[in-house]
Amino acid sequence: MGNYIDLYKEKLRTADEAVKVVKSGDNVWYGHFAMAPRALDEALAKRVGELKDIWIKGVCILFDPKVATADPEHKSFTYHSGHFSGHDRHLGDKGLDFYLPGNYGQCPWNVRMGNYGPISVAMIMATSPDENGYFNFGTSCSYASLICETADIVILEVNDQVPWCLGGEQETIHISQVDYIVENHAPMIAFPSEFSVSEAEQKIASLIIDQLEDGATLQFGIRAMPSMIGKMIAQTDLKDLGIHSEMMADCFIDLEEKGIVTGTRKNIDRSKITYTFTLGSQNPYDFIDRNPVCATFPVDITNSPARMAINDKLMCINNAVEIDLFSQINSESSGFRNISGTGGQLDFTIGAMYSKGGKPFICLTSTKVQKGQTVSRIVPTLSPGSIVTVPRTFAPYIVTEYGIVNMQGKSTYRRAELLIEIAHPDFRDELIKAAQQQGIWTRSNRID
């Protein structure tokens, strides 16, 4: 490491010392997902009451940020998230966490345009430095490099438990670009890779499997469905699958180790598992560590519809909360309650549409239990306060346990008919009545 040893020591601070650079009115940016800075967050929270009007942004971090819980009246800190995790949801319910809407792939553009305001201080977790004086952004390439490039002050929370993730590009930062270093030896936050799935979800997964072909490139969203589909793919004779996804997930590892995922038919990033962040158990954290089969890129590269569409047969599989008879898709709220975020769903839906032989799928069970009652997820109109994640102009293949239907190129009345065909039978009659009232039902419509 040579001369970098002295420079490292010169920039080393305790967390309490480092956060002294934050002054009232600053915008502070945290690392994303598992790379959020735990020691720096705790130290900054101690300054509640001392500072005023601190605007803080994270993305789907995996713990309750102390800056949010220590200041419920927002006298010092107001915390924002670019995507909601379980922690964000319960904090949001208490008014302690506010969502920043936007497509994930659009966020770097917002930074460059100054739409979020100036970045005063970046606080990002990273690996220990290598012999050349470089730190790695670990499991969240995201747009960490751009944040550091734009920020007035850069503080790295160095953690030797963070895996070194090979790129792509913009996955590292040199010590000369860092102002302060804080050390925090702590295990990576992980969560179980096994999820309970319903019979309806298993049926949806089997319908998706039937759509896959040899040489397809896959993208999976978050939650149980991708895990189920990955396990089912492992039992098929599919071959030469590729991965181009914003998230690196547990299920991709099994498929790569079994030789099902090779990436040899990808037209870009050939033979690489392409991703921008990792979430899951300790298993993927171990797998991606200096693994040359993986390539982490900034999110405006992984989530660029034009770039991902270079790969043929791009199959993008994502979830939704509800869909109305006009084919508007809500994937991020339950009425006025924010429960998720736009993420990359619209990015990948568009990208798969433009991929040769590609197909985007939005999956949802036909019903859910709400306040003790079974209700339809296919609804006449979206609930008040619901967010349109994918507009009807980009509504793709919709999948429930009752089938797959394609919304593209269909009239309003044909879309209503197709959606009712895959709704739960108990709700079809009332959905037909609603479609008639909404003027999207004609005498040519048929429901068996």
What does this protein look like?
With 448 residues, the protein is of the alpha/beta class. It folds into 2 domains: 180 residues, Glutaconate Coenzyme A-transferase, CATH 3.40.1080; 239 residues, 3-Layer(aba) Sandwich (Glutaconate Coenzyme A-transferase), CATH 3.40.1080.20. It is built from 16 helices and 26 strands. The strands form 7 sheets. The chain has an 8-stranded mixed sheet with strand order 15-13-11-10-16-21-25-26, with helices on both faces. Strand 25 and strand 26 form a beta hairpin. The longest helix has 13 residues. The termini are far apart.
Short characterization:
This protein has 16 helices and 26 strands.
Question: Which structural class fits the helix and strand makeup?
Answer: alpha/beta
Bulk shape: globular
Number of helices: 16
Pick out the low-confidence regions: none
Order the strands across the largest sheet as they lie in space.
15-13-11-10-16-21-25-26
Spatial extent as radius of gyration: 23 Å
Secondary-structure map:
Layout: H1 4-11, H2 15-18, E1 27-32, H3 38-45, E2 54-59, H4 66-69, E3 77-81, H5 86-93, E4 98-99, H6 107-113, E5 121-126, E6 134-136, H7 144-150, E7 153-158, E8 172-174, E9 180-183, H8 199-209, E10 217-220, H9 224-233, E11 242-244, E12 247-248, H10 250-257, E13 273-275, E14 277-278, H11 282-288, E15 294-296, H12 299-302, H13 305-308, E16 314-319, E17 322-324, E18 329-330, E19 333-334, E20 337-338, H14 345-354, E21 359-363, E22 367-370, E23 373-376, E24 378-379, E25 397-400, E26 403-406, H15 412-421, H16 425-437
Parallel strand pairs: 1-2, 1-5, 2-3, 3-4, 5-7, 7-9, 10-11, 10-16, 11-13, 12-14, 13-15, 16-21, 17-24, 21-25
Antiparallel strand pairs: 6-8, 17-18, 19-20, 22-23, 25-26
